[in-house]
Amino acid sequence: QAKITVTETWLRKHRHLYDGATRHPFIRSIRDGNINISAFKTWLGQDYIFVRAFVPFVASVLTKAYKGSDDGNGDVEVILGGVAALHDEISWFKKEAFKWGVQLSSIVPQKANQEYCRFLESLIGPEVEYTVAAVAFWAIETIYQQSFAHCLEDDSKTPPELKETCQRWGNESFGEYCNSLRNIVDRQLEKASDDVITKAEATLLRVLEHEVDFWNMSHGRT
Ligand code: HMH
Questions:
Q1: Residue 179: in which H helix or E strand, if any?
Q2: Which of 9, 57, 155, 172 has the fewest Cβ atoms within 10 Å of its own Cβ atom?
Q3: How far apart are CA 132 and CA 196, in angstroms?
């Protein structure tokens, strides 16, 4: 029988909050086909701003993976794949915004977004351990993967014009990438001190809360 990993323990323990982030009313409304298009446009514009702030954070995780020296496991390459995907994602946001008539240059970040971006910035510094930053990175990517994959299940009624968006994060290869991030995190946690494990778990909870607030904002509930 396979050993229960730290992330498995956390996901069981925090299942309620995790489901709150991956099965949010905003995601349910896409999946049920009754999404308000203005809510979708809000999400699109705000997420573009978020992704721009996400880039330096992911770059900092990459740096920490490299400096962690014992990278015989290919952490750097997995994270570099994430950076490359973000480059593609930014082009996609521009294309998609044009399609929906969303003017990206005039988007003002809302409070929940500002707070989330500030949280990302707080994780960039060298005083934040690789393990802690990697946990945040894994959680951020995985919540989107799980949320949008939910909108692509056989019984979903996702509007055809939103399928491509859901595919971006809900596709299988993004899922495999998230699994690679999870393996990186579990390998790090396996050798981490109790202090780092405690910090990393608290960071996971903060990510889950920020993701819920981000969906709430998009859904027009703030
Ligand atoms: C708010 N969380 C948010 N936006 C994203 N694009 C992702 C996670 C995944 O990259």
A1: helix 172-190
A2: 155
A3: 7
Tell me how far the alpha carbon of residue 44 lies from the centroid of ligand 1, in angstroms: 11
All structural domains of the chain, each given as residue ranges with its CATH number in brackets, are: 6-219 (1.20.910.10)
ipTM score of complex? 0.98
| DSSP-based three-state secondary structure for 177 | helix
Angle at 78 between CA 192 and CA 31, to 5 degrees: 100
Is residue 211 part of the annotated active site? The answer reads: yes
pLDDT tens, position by position, 171-199: 999 999 999 999 999 999 999 999 999 99
Judge if the beta carbon of residue 141 lies within 6 A of ligand 1: yes
